[in-house]
Write a structure and sequence with these properties.
mainly alpha, 12 helices, 77% helix
Length: 330
């Protein structure tokens, strides 16, 4: 491995593992959330990292706040679903309309809203506790990746435009595809509540919002199912080995470091980087790092549901991009 790739992998590992350990030590409900910003906030240029970090925190606050308000004050299921669908579609429309690095906050707002609302529907989870937990984990992750890499990346010399030009029809196509997939996600978690339904709905929501927000999602469409499969497989291997070894919860957190190291190498290597991001995200989600965890059978079913969600989301957006009027401008 070239020195530059090794150093990048080392910084990614250090930031993600430190964030996970700190979130676990603080007793946060979902400590693996703290490791997630590491893989997406890190950028080749210093300004872009700072912008992404700030937008990650801002988008999390907005999305968590709206998700909490939906769950807390909307008591009719159909209206809860409508609120989630509208929030996701608007966030995707705004993110795609901007099209530059400044779109990140809008995308994160939609994703965070889904992360708050879907578990509250499918498992009657406390929305306020989820919102607070999400905020602190995000803040820990952003600070960890910024401190680990800010001194090692150069300044970008050229300026980046606030937004890129696109057509109204292309924006509408992204919003329509996202809204349709979010309706499916909501119906699944409404009529099939529980761990597996939540895993499918969460995956479908996140994948849809990410695909809809990107100016050109074609590379994601090609690599997202592969990354999901690798991440889910890593999560199952992690839980199996930890189970047969009799690791306690803290030992499982330490053991996760080995898989985070593998994920860092995947993301740092040019040939595996296209699916490395999704692999790391799905590993953290499917392995439930830092939590007691479900049975291996349930984790396998939930991982399969998340992989199915990736296939459905990428297929839907492949069909949308096949319609000329919905394609982004070259």
């Amino acid at each position: 491995m070239p020195k530059s790739e090794f150093l990048k992998a080392a910084r990614l590992f250090g930031a993600a593992f430190a964030a996970l350990l700190l979130a676990h030590a603080l007793g946060l409900t979902n400590p693996y959330w703290a490791a997630m910003p590491i893989w997406v906030v890190i950028r080749p240029y210093r300004q872009d990292m700072l912008i992404r970090g700030a937008l990650r925190v801002l988008g999390t606050v907005i999305g968590a706040g709206i998700g909490f308000l939906i769950i807390q004050y909307v008591h009719l299921s159909v209206l809860v679903g409508a609120g989630l669908v509208v929030m996701a579609a608007v966030s995707v429309g705004l993110a795609f309309w901007i099209g530059s690095i400044y779109a990140y906050g809008a995308m994160i707002a939609g994703m965070t809203c889904a992360v708050i609302v879907i578990p509250a529907i499918g498992a009657d989870t406390d929305a306020s506790a989820l919102a607070i937990d999400r905020f602190w984990c995000t803040l820990i992750g952003v600070l960890a990746v910024t401190l680990s890499a800010i001194l090692f990346v150069p300044n970008r010399q050229e300026k980046v435009a606030f937004r890129l030009k696109t057509t109204g029809w292309a924006v509408f196509g992204r919003m329509l595809a996202t809204a349709t997939l979010l309706v499916i996600a909501f119906l699944v978690v409404l009529f099939q509540p529980g761990f597996i339904g939540i895993s499918f709905a969460m995956g479908l929501s996140i994948f849809s919002i990410v695909l809809g927000s990107f100016p050109d999602p074609a590379p994601l469409i090609r690599n997202m199912p592969k990354g999901a499969l690798v991440g889910v497989t890593m999560g199952l291997v992690y839980r199996y080995i930890g189970g047969v070894s009799g690791f306690d919860e803290f030992q499982m957190v330490l053991f996760a470091g080995a898989f985070i190291a593998v994920g860092a190498v995947l993301y740092a290597h040019p040939q595996t980087a296209p699916f490395g991001l999704d692999a790391n995200m799905l590993f953290l989600l499917s392995a439930e790092v830092g939590l007691p965890g479900h049975s291996l059978d349930l984790l396998a079913l939930a991982g399969g549901a998340a992989f199915l969600a990736a296939l459905l989301a990428t297929t839907a957006f492949r069909l949308v991009l096949a319609i000329p009027v919905f394609r982004p401008r070259p």
